[in-house]
Amino acid sequence: MKMKYELLKQEKNTKARYGKIHTNYGTYETPMFMPVGTKATVKSLTPEELKEMNCGIILANTYHLWLRPGSEIVKKAGGLHAFMHYNGPILTDSGGFQVFSLAKNKEKDIEEEGVHFKSHIDGNSLFLTAEKSIQIQNDLDSDIAMSFDECPPASASYAYLKNSVERTLRWAERGKQVHNNPNQALFGIVQGGAYEDLRKYSAVETVKMDFDGYSIGGVANDGESKEDMYKAIDYSIPYLPEDKARYLMGIGDPIDLIEGVIRGVDIFDCVLPTRIARHGQAFTKNGKINFHNAKYKEDFTPLEEDCDCYTCKNYTKAYLRHLITTDEMLGGRLLSIHNIRFLVRMMEQMRNAIKEDRILEYREEFLEKYQSKK
Question: Which residues carry out catalysis?
Answer without folding.
Answer: 93, 269
